[in-house]
Task: structure prediction
Amino acid sequence: MTNLPGPLDDLLIVDLSRVLAGPYATMVLADLGARVVKVERPGLGDDSRHIGPFKGDQSAYFASINRGKQSIALDLKDAGDREIFEALVAKADVLVENYRPGVMAKLGLGWDVLHARHPRLIYAAASGFGQTGPDAHKAAYDMVVQAMGGIMSVTGWPGGKPTRVGTSVGDITAGLFTVIGILSALHDRARTGQGQFVDVAMLDGQIAILENAVARYAVSGVAPGPLGARHPSITPFAAYECLGGHIVIAAGNDALFGALAAALELPGLLGDPRFASNASRTDHAEALADILEARLAAAAAAHWLPKLEAAGVPCGPLHDVAQALAHPQVRARTMVIETAFPDGTPLLAAGNPVKLSRHADPAVRPGAPGLDADRDTILRELGL
Result:
């Protein structure tokens, strides 16, 4: 199987990217039906083939992000392999790469050259700092852009050590914005007949998702810091300790706060001037947390969550990864799927969160390719 039926199943994506930002983008495109041909280094392949966790000698990291793709190994400095690559690009709708700016140009395969040869080609480049600006030439990994983009400064607990967000949001955000850019360029091509260059920077993505932190700085002139598990401007909106664990409560307006007070049998909260409005509750967030946790300490999450849900208060348990993957809602939405390692060994992975009414959302997805596994098929199709 080369690609699944889906809204993008008439598209061919040539994927020169490696590790995470670019491969995440092309995984999303493959999940939506696009045929993705992964071009890898001969003998080594994508760097992520060598990053754990491993099942035997196979990387689960690689397999989970590169499911449903094909692989061909090409040395773009070799004349024969370059001929194959150019024939492949001539058939492609989109090329995706995440090299440092200038690398493809040095190979004679930059945007200007490829656009002149293939005017309908969409060329998407995801890089650390983008194609312009004083840092465009620098290399970056997720940790670098999390630090530079301000995300780490608002993550963790006040006075604590710098804390990285627990997933690679620098790479993943860039991957998602790359998909948005590609889909926008495809829509534009349908109107104009012309491809274009899509330039996405990991650092830009981190700035883009700072949301409330930017608003707070713009208004106050003071750079915000970490607040642990609570929201900076909505209260109560945090993780609160109960007997034997924590639950999350998100009472985002006065009506929900009243429902919360009733469900917890704390009517005195409503007459307390410190908690009369969201703004005043936020000013007295610690005092409110002390009152709520004193009440919540009387019982476990299994007692409180049904009461809060019945009152219409947004709330939830604090899950670890195993609990999250096992949750009935997650399973009902096909957000845990089965894919496979290159040798066919089954592997659980996160599903596709985009659900479309005209297309299936299969619980079993094609596996990741072995290095150069699809060379013969691709060469036959190209007449080479």
